[in-house]
Amino acid sequence: MPLALLALAVSAFGIGTTEFVMMGLLPNVADDLGTSVPTVGYLVSAYALGVVVGAPLLTALGSRVPRKRMLVLLMALFTVGNLASALAPSFGSLVAARVLAGLPHGAFFGVGAVVAARLVAEERRARAVATMFLGLTIANIVGVPVATLLGQHLGWRATFLVVAGIGVVAMAAIARLVPQVPLDQHGGLRRELGALRDRQVLLGLLTAVFGFAGVFAVYSYLASMMTEVTGFAESSVTVVLALFGIGMTLGALAAGPLTDRALRPTLYGSLAALAVVLVVFDVTVHIKWAALATVVVLGAVGFMTTTPLQMLVMNKARSAPTLASASNHSAFNLANAGGAWLGGVAIAAGWGWTSPTLVGAALAVIGLAIAVTAGFLDRAAPEEPSRVVATSEPLPKMSEVG
Q1: In whole angstroms, what is the distance from residue 182 CA to residue 282 CA?
Q2: Which of 83-92, 113-122, 192-201, 304-313 has the lowest mean pLDDT?
Q3: C-alpha–C-alpha distance, residues 30 and 26, integer Å
Q4: What confidence tier does 1 reach under pLDDT thresholds 50, 70, 90?
Q5: Angle at 40 between CA 37 and CA 42, to 5 degrees
Q6: Which of 257, 251, 259, 279 shows the shortest CA–CA distance to 360?
Q7: SS3 sequence, 239-293?
Q8: How far apart are CA 108 and CA 122, in angstroms?
């Protein structure tokens, strides 16, 4: 794999760290700013709002910007957003800073996925995209726990200063390692918007919203399930979340080659497996060793859905994949918010701490039904070659990268 993918993975590591670390810092931020933990919880939603808005907006605004330069600019905005978070004097300013930090998230992964696909031969594109996503999964194993401990001992502001430093490193790595990727001369905002209206692209995005919501219906309440139902101490929650991150990494490693070999079957299989594992988790959550094993498997099958969904919308958008690719991350964050909300509704209704597992399973089944319907409709239409790679000019050798 090209070294350029390492630069993209480092960037993904920083993005993943800042996205999830806030969940572990809520009590620290609440104490420092003199507000309640539930109120500080809005900071998680603020970041997600930035992702949902920023993905299509920044991608559209940068549709004619060379992709390497666009990646550097997006990481610069990410760095500024985290620096602003570290220096925020009040809760309101911190909310604004979190929105700012979230703005480049979806656009970066959208552009980065297209660039990653262009760096390798066509039969290895999914593996390249999955390699970039490895940075996101490793952030859940290493970045988030370390950043949480740092925030607990040196203050939450130190965490965001370190994340801003990761952003600077990522910018340097992109500038040094990522080659210039020529824009499609027939591209542009109008063509990107047209591709986004494609029926298969829309069905892919809808699959992401429902299918991935099944993951977050449970992940959002995983810590509470482990303490309230399984019987783990609160100090063990970090280990549980790290196990989930290990599962995510295994899923990303498996998803790349499987998606390159058979995209739709990989998507169907991962969504079906997700639904089954969530139902099983409703039983195993009561047994400590079985609960931990299921958490790893849940992370794996949950994250296995991301690469085929990413490649699906890129392929179906054909000659203008960037906006569709970025919008896929808006869909993932809508899944995040929607899954967490529905899981919370089930708990509030008195169905118990384990009820989000069955809610998540139902959402995964809906996502699978949408995916299968899309596949059935797609068979009736002739498959056009993806122009993500096929019609591109050869990339320069690394020795030519300046």
Answers
A1: 49
A2: 192-201
A3: 6
A4: low
A5: 125
A6: 279
A7: HHHHHHHHHHHHHHHHHHHHHHHCHHHHHHHHHHHHHHHHHHHHHHCCCHHHHHH
A8: 21
**Mean pLDDT computed over 356-366:** 95
Residue reference for tokens 């498996």: 254
Residue 302 contacts residue 212 (beta carbons within 8 Å): yes
Full-model pTM = 0.80
| Closest-CA residue to 130 (of 294, 262, 284, 305) | 305
CB 218 within 8 A of CB 278: yes
Taking Cα atoms as reference points, which of 154, 67, 156, 13 lies closest to residue 392? 67
Confidence of residue 386 (pLDDT cuts 50, 70, 90): very low
Q: How far apart are CA 29 and CA 76, in angstroms?
A: 25
- CB burial of residue 215 (10 Å; 0-12, 13-18, 19+): buried
Length of the chain as a residue count: 402
* pLDDT higher than threshold 60 for residue 302: yes
